[in-house]
């Protein structure tokens, strides 16, 4: 990996020498209007720090995995599903996503939502819910409303 | 370690369930007007994410170590010394501090400087400069002015 300049300037939620990437491969999982930038990844670091940003109305994939997410909201507002809890989130709030906890983030209808996410560099791949698991989540009306984006 | 609530609210650069700590033990090294909050530390994570904040005129310790620092400026403005470079830094800029690189951060004279710092959970202790190393750094007038805070 190329070494980064020691200082990388911030420009309206883009950073120098930092590519704007697709969130995931298109069609691999459900998501909407979300981009990814890897702010720090280095053999000397055992974690990566990524920045994800969703346009208004955008959302990440509903998924879970062994690895933990450590999230800091850097921009805007939205909602997060963590397990069976739906919570509003705003700039600088912290979100801890424990191993094997279903989670999804959604930007507000009229504001973007940008967040930092720290993860272990070595980590497992996310699992998507089965139809049964999705139905179990939707049994809670609040969770069902969140998943529909209403 | 106690499990954290999944969402921790941000309150003016303090977070719920997150202690405001001394930067280091008083007298262990030179520093001024700087505090520490550990935002994420968990056995499931191989890194920690800390938030440091300096009051106007405050500074961190001039030091170096094997472990890498991955820094994102979260609040305010200031200057950083990385190796033999002195650079201005502002909110959301990224700073990479390579292993064994001398570094120090300083808040501006009239603004605080708050920053996130990601580090490996397992890491070595910092080294302070010897008198000779400090003199070598001060041979560069820009670095000397930075270290004096002028």
Overview of this protein structure:
Two copies of one chain form a homodimer. Chain A has 150 residues and is mainly beta. Chain A has helices at residues 131-138, 141-148, and strands spanning 7-8, 10-11, 14-15, 21-22, 32-40, 47-59, 69-82, 85-90, 94-97, 103-107, 113-120. In chain A, strands 4, 5, 6, 7, 8, 9, 10 and 11 form an eight-stranded antiparallel β-sheet that branches. Chain A has a two-stranded antiparallel sheet with strand order 2-3. The longest helix of chain A has 8 residues, at 131-138. The interface between A and B is large, with 46 and 47 residues.
Greatest interface and its residue counts? A-B, 46 and 47 residues
Number of helices of chain A: 2
Helix content bin of chain A: 10-25%
Mean model confidence by pLDDT of chain A? 94
Tell me about the largest β-sheet of chain A: 8 strands, antiparallel
Number of strands of chain A: 11
Task: Please state the CA-atom Rg of chain A, rounded to the nearest Å.
Answer: 16 Å
């Amino acid at each position: 990996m190329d070494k980064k300049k020691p200082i990388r300037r911030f420009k309206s939620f883009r950073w120098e020498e930092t590519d704007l990437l697709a969130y995931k491969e298109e069609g691999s999982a459900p998501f909407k209007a979300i981009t990814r930038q890897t702010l720090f990844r280095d053999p000397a670091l055992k974690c990566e720090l990524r920045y994800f940003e969703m346009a208004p109305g955008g959302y990440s994939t509903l998924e879970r995995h062994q690895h933990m997410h450590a999230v800091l909201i850097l921009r805007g507002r939205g909602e997060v599903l963590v397990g069976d809890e739906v919570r509003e989130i705003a700039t600088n709030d912290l979100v801890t996503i424990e191993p094997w906890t279903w989670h999804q983030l959604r930007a507000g209808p009229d504001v973007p939502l940008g967040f930092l996410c720290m993860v272990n560099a070595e980590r497992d791949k996310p699992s998507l819910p089965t139809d049964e698991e999705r139905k179990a989540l939707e049994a809670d009306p609040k969770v069902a409303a969140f998943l529909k984006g209403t």
